[in-house]
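Hey, sorry to bother you again with one of my protein questions. There's a protein on my desk that I can't quite get my head around. No rush at all, and the record is pasted right below.
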Amino acid sequence: MNIKIEKPTFEDADIIAKYANNIKIWRGLTDNFPHPYSKQNAIDFIKIIEKEEPQRTFKITKDGQFVGFTGIVLQEGIYRKNAEIGYWIAEEFWGQGIASEAVNLLVKYLCKTFYDIEKIYAKVFDSNIASIRVLEKNRFRKEATLEQIAYKDNEYKDIHYYSFFIWPMMRLDLTKSI
């Protein structure tokens, strides 16, 4: 299995829309992610990604085939040493270890590209056990549970906050295999 994170192109718009237009994907993400998800949503998203410098949002591919997205949100002000990550995998590729490998690649890229970042974090719904497992496999640790803080799909949800600290020697180890 050959997993890569790459810059998406406009040629990806149809397949992005096909996989993103899934209520199960939408339920695991913030409301910034539209549902239903159209080809125009994909094109608009790629237009935003095109302007990123350095790159922060990537398509995930398995053996050259689009299977999802992952990305980095750099924080500002007093939180400027932090970055949030996120990801989603098309339903037909769930349970194959793709998200775990994509997060591993994203963390390595982040360490190499954004040298000032010292903490990476992710927020995950309590019901998203697979995503929690992805983070744990990548050495993220649970810092907190924010109870009933999110309102999604007509109900309140708990959010788990997972983090990963980048220590100087760890940064060297993470980046040497890139």
